[in-house]
Design a protein that fits this description.
Belongs to the 4-toluene sulfonate uptake permease (TSUP) (TC 2.A.102) family. The chain is mainly α. The protein is built from 10 helices and no strands. The longest helix is centred in the last third of the chain and has 25 residues.
């Protein structure tokens, strides 16, 4: 158990660091936990990783909140929608075949990577493309979709949220990362409420992982705020590319 715990804590630290900058930490943490604890049900793994994810995201959100001004109307719309559908997604884990969803996500990710790479100004400057009312409606709409995805599958949620806040709502990378952390807190909490109520949380692993995820998130958020939009853009591309490889493996090779 000690060896398993050490490996899980290292994965949690790395996940927290990545997640604080551009999201997508779950792409490392969830597969690592599945690999290290193969004898537990998938639902128990999903429930367990929600605790470190929630802890790390909360710390990152706090760090961002001290330097970023939040658009609370847009944020609340997205948070409420995402929280509700994340509960539904967690409930649906055992009823929906992930193999149907993953090819669609793979295509979307490739398009995101190409657009971000060729559009050098993507997320570098904030611009308001819509009225506040339209921003609120769009935030709620995409919150519904991404919240459901986080409850159902999870990995990559932070990156998808950042993409929506930049490409759809007109935020820059720093602002998008800050807002995404708050929404991701809500989706993690909703899924955790469901998994814990059904006995699918391994607390002996989840609590130590949470401490290391917090540590990684602290350093990741600090680095992101120090380096700014251009650094986050590069990091975002790296994480999206890694996400593409992960989903391509699942879709094409498994």
């Amino acid at each position: 158990m000690i060896q398993e715990l050490i490996l899980l804590c290292l994965a949690a630290f790395a996940a927290g660091f990545i997640d604080a900058i551009v999201g997508g930490g779950g792409l490392l943490q969830t597969p690592a936990t599945l690999l290290i604890l193969p004898h537990y049900p998938v639902a128990s793994i999903f429930g367990t990783v929600k605790i470190p994810s929630l802890a790390g995201t909360t710390v990152a959100a706090y760090k961002y909140s001290k330097q970023v001004k939040f658009n609370y109307k847009v944020l609340i719309s997205c948070v409420v929608a995402a929280f509700c559908t994340s509960l539904l997604g967690a409930y649906s884990v055992s009823m929906i075949n992930n193999a149907v969803i993953k090819p669609v996500i793979l295509v979307v990710l490739i398009a995101v990577a190409l657009y971000t790479y060729f559009n050098k100004q993507f997320g570098i400057h904030q611009h308001k493309a819509h009225s506040l009312q339209k921003q609120i409606l769009l935030a709620g709409f995409f919150g519904l979709i991404i919240g459901f995805y986080d409850g159902l599958i999870g990995p990559g949620t932070g990156s998808f949220l950042i993409l929506v806040f930049i490409a759809v709502l007109g935020f820059d990378f720093v602002g998008a990362s800050a807002h995404a952390k708050i929404v991701n807190m809500a989706t993690n909490l909703a899924a955790l409420l469901y998994f814990s109520s059904t006995g699918h949380v391994l607390y002996q692993y989840a609590i130590p992982m949470a401490l290391f995820n917090i540590l990684g998130s602290f350093f990741g958020a600090k680095l992101a705020l120090l380096k700014g939009n251009k650094f986050i853009r590069i990091f975002f591309l790296i994480v999206v590319f890694g996400t593409i490889l992960r989903f391509a493996w699942d879709v094409l090779l498994k």
